[in-house]
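Intended use. Records like the one below are meant for learning the mapping from a protein sequence to its folded structure. Do not use them to infer anything beyond what is encoded.
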Amino acid sequence: MAQATRDEGKKVNSDINVTPMVDVMLVLLIIFMVVTPMLNNKVNVELPPAAAAVVMEDANKEDSVVVAVTRDGKTFLGGDQVTGSDLGPKISAKLENKTDKRVYFRGDNRANYGKVMEAIDGIRAAGVSQLGMLADKPLI
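Structure written out for the chain above:
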């Protein structure tokens, strides 16, 4: 009687099956090729750095109208402190005889947002259509 042996060990294949890995890599490659053009959807705009200097020069003129809001909520028209309700009529009086009806606004970065919006509403109530925002550092 002969002993039955299993010879399955001789059939073991030690080669790496790379087909699943290649399939996964091709799918990832296709995904990245499709998604990459969508990532760069912003429009680059180069603004001239001289534009900020021109606005600052106009705001520094003697007859320019500058409104400022401080961090403690005080509103100033030029160097004079005004209330929110008086701001519109005083700006109208200052712009009455001027051809350039431009107002410049300066707000502290820690100022109350409500006070800033109240000042801007007062400027708009005076009939100003051009409002220049002033900053200490260039925004560019």
